[in-house]
Amino acid sequence: MSEAILRPDEFRPDEFRPGDIRPDDLVTTRRWTPSAWHLVLIPLAVVMLFPFFWLVVTSLQTLAQSRTFGLHFALQFHNYIDAWTQAPFGRWLLNTTIVSVTVVISNLVFCSLAGYALARIRFFGSGALFLVILATLMVPFQVVMVPTLLIVRGLGLVDSLPALMAPNLVTPFGVFLLRQFFKTMPVEIEEAARIDGAGRLGTLVKVVLPSMRAPLATVGIMTLLWTWNDFLWPLIAIQSEKHFTLQLGLMTFQGAHSINWPLIMAGTVTTQIPMLVIFIFAQRWFVQSLATQGLKG
Amino acid sequence: MTTGRASLRDRLFASDHVAGWLFVSPAVLLIGLFGVAPIIWALIISFQNNSLITSGTWVGLANYRHLLHDPMFAASVRRTIVYTVLFVPITLFGALAVAVALNRRLRGMRFYRTAVFAPVVTSTVATAIMFSWLLDPYFGIVNIILNKLGFASQGFFQNPSQALYCIVIVTVWGWLGFAVVIYMAALQGIPSELLEAAEIDGATRWRAFWRVQFPLLGPTTLFLVVWLSINALQLFDEIYVITRGGPLASTTVVVYYLFQQAFAFFQAGYATAIAYVVFLAILLLTVVQLLIGRRLVHYRS
Amino acid sequence: MTRSRIVCGATLAVVAVALLAVALVAAGCGGGSPSSSSSSPGTTGSGTVTFWHGYTDVERAAIDRTGAEYNATKPAWKVSVVFAGNNDYALTKLQTALAAGKAPDIAYQYGSSMALLAKLPQVVDLTSRVNDPAFGWNDFFPAVRLAATVNGKVLGVPALVDNLALVYNKTLFDQAGVPYPTAQWTWDDFRAAAKRLTNPSTKQFGWAYVNDASEDTVWRYVALLWQAGGDMLTPDNSKAAFNSAAGLKAMTLLYDMANQDHSIYLDSGNDNYLNLFNAGKIAMLYTGPWDISSINKGVRFGVQILPGDVSHATIAGPDNYVVLNNGADRVNGAWQFIKWFTAPQQHLQFAIATGDLPLSSAETKLPGYQTYLKKYPAEALFVANLGNVTKARPNIPTYPQVSQALGQAIQAVLLGKMTPQQALSSAEQQVNSILASGQ
């Protein structure tokens, strides 16, 4: 493997970097760009994608094919249409989108605030508070779901979309992750901004957050994913079908003893494709490098 | 910005305590209401003989005493620890390796990254079905391959001695992408000047990585160790859809055991007592991890 | 802006504390549903009762139609038919709904949940209502009546009944030259046939057994136990009775077929056995009407009663509608709907639409029953087989734990980890201690 670890903006194929030794050096040819990394990455990709591939294959099968053994290929695209028409898929999609978008935005805002404070501001009780926030992750949801339901009922929210949003508006995951990333920020930049007269909030919004695209994207994506795929909480918090989320709705195709796999898989693929698409686009936040931030001095 | 208002604002914001609490107040409110309050409520239940619906009778520490003498509980704890000790390091180092591999400019990188993330997006049910088929003792592809290579068919999920390890594989597969994404985000934050400096000094790439990049990934690694441990100790979903605690209870981990108690046997009081013991154990472990982290992890300042 | 931030912060804090207090108070008072039994008996009021079910597909369309038909008769209490999610979650959903104080009036529940539901004060005791001669309780098959009764109280009305029979692949039988199963088959006939229908080189199995140690594993064994003349528990439900000669005979059959003949495909609980049956890899199944609709068209199959030992006893898995007490008026309203729906003529319509088995012998005497048989020829045997259901599983609150102990014993035997006697003794010990400490 004849590559150095490069920042993407520093990829200069023809330039030698000090210390590089490439087997091709002995043979005076150009660098061999099809890297040996592919030999590792391709099998990895296959392993990772195989179940998703099977999901798609099943979603295109006929019902009879799905009820037998072995891999059968078919192109029953009507399964996708059926999944949409046999059930109020559009409604569920709308519900899930509203809930997920609200939760993501609220998390990005509130977790940033809290994570920044826990990372950078020395205030009374911050250590204990951080631990308490973490502690809420340590009790299995199955145990607290009934009391949570009672609280939601006390707020008059049962069987409504706010019931799905409320418990998730701030997640300890977001607070914890962002706190860790905030701690990796060089303090000099913030101090420079404070000296220039910006308040703490201004510093956070104008100086620190723009450099945190990747962790913010991570919090956004994971929160989106978890809210999108959440099943147990919606199951007990929602009673009317018009408030179902996508995951709840998929149960419609799942009888006690007979499961309509092609329809469920078509529905599942439909619900997962947006996640993958968002991830594909969000990758640029993981790939763009940090602008150098005046580390000198 | 008149001088009067500026000084008031400065005075207030000069007070770190006020500023700090203002910043965290939304989080405190929401997590307090939906995170802390239910936990306290559940704690009260653990001192009762409760079936979740009918209000229970107070039994004090009886549930906790029963815990200490329950061999099934002890066995579930053992299995959970075995699982965690395998799952966390494998996922962590596997993800680190993959993130480093993906952090380059090769053709098809976007595809590889999406592929690695795909398992995180795949639903647990679909994953369960897939792996059940792949590892079927008679018809699974893995066994067919093993047979062709001359090995005997394995029971996998049907073999009490293998089932838990198969669950490790399934969950590592499912969680790797998540950890990779986090590491990728962290790798973005490492300025290249530091690497250059090391390489100019003559370090090989391998050593440059361990000496420069890995320490800078400290906060992220700490996060992942804590996060993965917390989740591993609370393993449930995969057990519920794949093995249902079997075969012969070999995959009955702690949270699955308490779920059975609460929802299959209607022993909610006992279940919450178990949950509290689990909670205290996780809390202790996390505190230890954070303390070690404080000593070992280098935060740039 | 600064001042408003302080005010904001302070208000937030106050609101937070207030909400927490409200939450804790609400949680502390949480529990029973608002049962306003203030109306005097005899008044009926009017409104809508909610009916939670988990039917999907064809059955769901049928139940929706049923609800609409009922509402068209302009009853005092209309019914709102609500899909509450997969029946696997029905118990959890009902539990949590009761805890949150927003329970339905009627709920579809698995029969296995009856003993647990009996613990809930909100579940209505229907004994006096079903004993009204107009209701025709005694026309319902004995199996379903037993399954709805806990400690002498009738707590549910039958919603669904089924039973286990032998479903076999005719093509595989023809290929192996084995004569089709008859109503006189014994365990020996069955074992011999399974052996001849097993072919390791083509990975074909004579029989499939669900081996996930759940009730699915247990109830098939219980059928064998009853066929050998045995019982699960003593009549007063105080001790295990399955560690007997009959129990041993049944367990030994499983052990030998799994570990000596290797004629059993052990299903891990994901219903792979059905896919394999469709693919022609499994010759015989012990299963019920619910799987019939999933058999692919190209598969030639037959249905027969289970092979017998002392008898050809089989086991039923009935589900019930339970009524929740949200006030006397609503209970009356709910009961009107149930009476209407489970009347033989009405339920027969539902059965014809869905393929569900009739619930009472009265239904089989109606002229419409011939329509049913013509539409679902395979069901005829299941209906006749209901006569072989003479016992029911014990309806005790600790049944889930008993089931788990027995399930793991059966699993150990099938995997060859324990001998039949070891497994039975170990399960007996566990079950006895469960029953002793039981509620």
Structure description:
Chain A is mostly helical and about 300 residues long. Chain A has 14 helices and no strands. In chain A, helix 1 (about 35-60) packs antiparallel against helix 14. The longest helix of chain A is centred in the middle third of the chain and has 32 residues, at about 90-120. Residues about 20-30 and about 290-295 of chain A have low confidence and may be disordered. Chain B has about 300 residues and is mostly helical. Chain B has helices spanning about 5-15, 15-45, 60-70, 70-100, 110-120, 125-135, 140-150, 165-190, 190-200, 205-215, 220-235, 235-245, 255-265, 270-295; strands spanning about 50, 55-60. The two termini of chain B are about 30 Å apart. The model of chain B has no long low-confidence stretch (mean pLDDT about 85). With about 450 residues, chain C is α/β, with parallel strands linked by helices. Chain C is about 45% helix and about 15% strand. Chain C has a 5-stranded mixed sheet with strand order 2-1-3-12-6. Chain C is globular, with a radius of gyration of 25 Å. At the A-B interface, helix 1, helix 4, helix 5, helix 6 and helix 8 of A face helix 2, helix 4, helix 5, helix 6 and helix 8 of B.
List keywords for this structure.
B: 301 residues; mainly alpha; 14 helices; C: 439 residues; alpha/beta; 5-stranded mixed sheet; 19 helices; 13% strand
Query: Which two protein chains have the largest interface (Cβ within 8 Å of the partner's Cβ), and how many residues from each?
Result: A-B, 105 and 108 residues
Q: Could you tell me how far the N terminus lies from the C terminus of chain B, measured between alpha carbons in angstroms? A: 32 Å
Distance between the termini of chain A: 37 Å
Helix content of chain B: over 70%
Beta-strand content of chain A: under 5%
* Cα radius of gyration of chain A in angstroms: 25 Å
Output mean pLDDT of chain A: 79
**Which of globular, elongated, flat, extended, rod-shaped describes the shape of chain B?**
flat
Compute the gyration radius of chain B: what is it? 24 Å
Would you report the number of β strands of chain B?
Answer: 2
Unreliable runs of chain A, pLDDT <50, ≥5 residues? 21-32, 289-297
Whole-number mean pLDDT of chain B: 85
Order of helices and strands of chain A: HHHHHHHHHHHHHH
Provide the structure class of chain B.
mainly alpha
Structural class of chain A: mainly alpha
Got a strand count of chain A?
0
Secondary-structure element order of chain B, N to C: HHEEHHHHHHHHHHHH
